[in-house]
Amino acid sequence: MLQAVRFLPFEPLLWFWVRPQKVLAVMEAELWYLLFYLAKRRGALTLLINARISDRSWPAYRRFGWLYRRIFAQIDTVYAQSDKDAERLRALGAKAVVVTGNIKLAATPRPTRRYEKPSGIVVTAASTHEGEEEGIVKAFVAWRRGHSPSCLLLVPRHPERFDAVADLAEKAAKKAGLTFSRWSKEGSLDADIVLIDTMGELINFYAITDIVVLGGAFVPGVGGHNPVEAIPFGCRLISGKEIFNQRALFAATKGAIFTELPNLPEALEEALGAEPITLVTPVRLDPIIERLRSVV
Question: What is the mean pLDDT of residues 107-130?
Answer without folding.
Answer: 95
